[in-house]
Amino acid sequence: EKELGVVYEEEAEADDGDGTSEVTALAFDGDHVASGHACGAVFLRNTSRTLMRASHEGVVTGVHWEGGATAFSASADRRLAQWDVRTGTRVAALQAKRPILCMDVCEGYAALGLDDGSVCVCSLSPLRLLFSFKAHDSPVSAVRLVTVSQLVTSCAGGGVALWRLDEEEGSERRLTRFDGHTAPVVCVDGDAEKVVSGARDGTVRVWDISLGRLRFMLQGFTPYIGSVQLSSSWLMADGTNNAVVMMDFSNGEPAEEEDDDDDAAAAAP
């Protein structure tokens, strides 16, 4: 098996690992940027220079770095890798049973979504698998660890699910499913009251956790959702057509919208 490690300049030119290939994973904390690329390259940068270049054998699907001596990345090569930032060497790795399609990290724990519908939950220090479970019948398309005990997942079949990891298996409270999307879900977020999901059907749906049903829906501003971000007082969504929509809940009034299209619209049932 080929050892993973530093991508040197001559290798970067050969495999497009110079950062010019498609960016498939990104993390930014205001000072530090971690990026993963379709060619398998992983880059760590601060505001002035590149600090580490490393490589997976497949598309990078998740990155995590907080500016310290250790960074993590996940890939379709089935590995969750731990990197020494100073040397660029892989110091540890977990190998999943199937390709990893998405990753999210919260307070030292990582959730990995696999292409067979499974989810793995791991600790990062030490790097080890804690448990795994079947989340969906189609590939897991997005994961979001809202807290260490609250996980939101979605799938290529359009399904969205909220998992309360502190509840026992078999408990009615452990799982709530939200159905309504008619195309693959590409992004999710959530808080203590709501789950939000964006899908390739062109809709952003906000679900009520306590009621287990749709609270409201955005549609019409873009046919292809890119990402969603949620806080207690606002919701932001972006996509193609140079459109960004922001809903401000701080005063209890309907959303304010910003976009470059005249046909932007918000729909509420």
Describe the protein's architecture and organization.
There is one protein chain. It is built from one helix and 25 strands. It has 269 residues and is mostly beta strands. A hairpin with a 4-residue loop joins β19 and β20. A five-stranded antiparallel sheet has the order 17-18-19-20-25, with no helix packed on it. Strands 1-2-3-4 form a four-stranded antiparallel sheet, with no helix packed on it.
Characteristics of this structure?
269 residues; mainly beta; 5-stranded antiparallel sheet; 4-stranded antiparallel sheet; 1 helix
Quick gist of this model?
The chain is an all-beta fold and 269 residues long.
Termini Cα gap:
54 Å
| Major sheet characteristics | 5 strands, antiparallel
Average pLDDT reading: 86
Helix content: under 10%
How many extended strands? 25
Structural class: mainly beta
Poorly predicted runs of 5 or more residues: 1-17, 253-269
Cα Rg: 19 Å
**How large is the share of residues in beta strands?**
over 45%
Strand order of the largest sheet: 17-18-19-20-25
In DSSP terms, counting alpha (H) and pi (I) runs of 4 or more, how many helices? 1
- Per the principal axes of the C-alpha atoms, what is the gross shape? globular
Query: What is the N-to-C order of secondary-structure elements (H for helix, E for strand)?
Result: HEEEEEEEEEEEEEEEEEEEEEEEEE
Describe the secondary structure blueprint for this structure:
Layout: H1 9-15, E1 23-28, E2 33-37, E3 41-45, E4 50-55, E5 60-65, E6 70-75, E7 79-84, E8 89-95, E9 100-106, E10 109-114, E11 118-124, E12 127-134, E13 140-147, E14 150-155, E15 160-164, E16 175-178, E17 185-190, E18 194-199, E19 203-208, E20 213-219, E21 225-230, E22 234-239, E23 244-248, E24 256-258, E25 266-267
Antiparallel strand pairs: 1-2, 2-3, 3-4, 5-6, 6-7, 7-8, 9-10, 10-11, 11-12, 13-14, 14-15, 15-16, 17-18, 18-19, 19-20, 20-25, 21-22, 22-23, 23-24
